[in-house]
Specification:
Number of strands: 2
Structural class: mainly alpha
Strand order of the largest sheet: 1-2
Number of domains: 2
Number of helices: 6
Largest sheet: 2 strands, antiparallel
Strand content: under 5%
CATH topology of the largest domain: Arc Repressor Mutant, subunit A
CATH class of the largest domain: Mainly Alpha
Helix content: over 70%
Order of helices and strands: HHHEEHHH
CATH architecture of the largest domain: Orthogonal Bundle
CATH superfamily of the largest domain: Winged helix-like DNA-binding domain superfamily/Winged helix DNA-binding domain
Length: 126
């Protein structure tokens, strides 16, 4: 899946946690995209089986879409935390994490998480 699709799925996940319902206008507002662009993306995500759109216009993630969204969401939070802990300004850390989360390999991300687990456990034992 391309970065833009991942961004849409992550945004749908976040909006769903905040509001319980998600509409295309909510996505457009959050991402700063035109309604036409969001409509095209929603149609594509729907046809690919990542989301379902109800007759009332509410958008929900399918299991497949939720798995991708949660993966990206986790990467965003972990990478933001790592960059912030290194002294990067929180706003810059979040922006950089947003870019990195789409290109980092599963192997590299897993290694970062394992390092954090080991480092956190070592600090708790001290």
């Amino acid at each position: 899946m391309r970065e833009s699709g991942e961004m849409y799925l992550e945004t749908i996940l976040i909006l769903g946690k905040e509001n319980n319902t998600v509409r295309a206008t909510d996505i457009a507002s959050r991402l700063g995209y035109s309604k036409a662009s969001v409509s095209r993306a929603v149609g594509k995500l729907n046809s690919e089986g990542h989301i379902v759109v109800g007759s009332n216009g509410h958008i929900a993630l399918t299991e497949r879409g939720r798995n991708i969204a949660e993966k990206i969401y986790e990467r965003h939070h972990v990478l933001t935390e790592v960059l912030s802990s290194l002294g990067v300004d929180p706003r810059c850390a979040a922006e950089d994490a947003c870019r990195i989360e789409h290109v980092i390999s599963d192997e590299a991300f897993s290694a970062i998480k394992q390092h954090l687990i080991r480092f956190g456990a070592a600090n708790n034992n001290a």
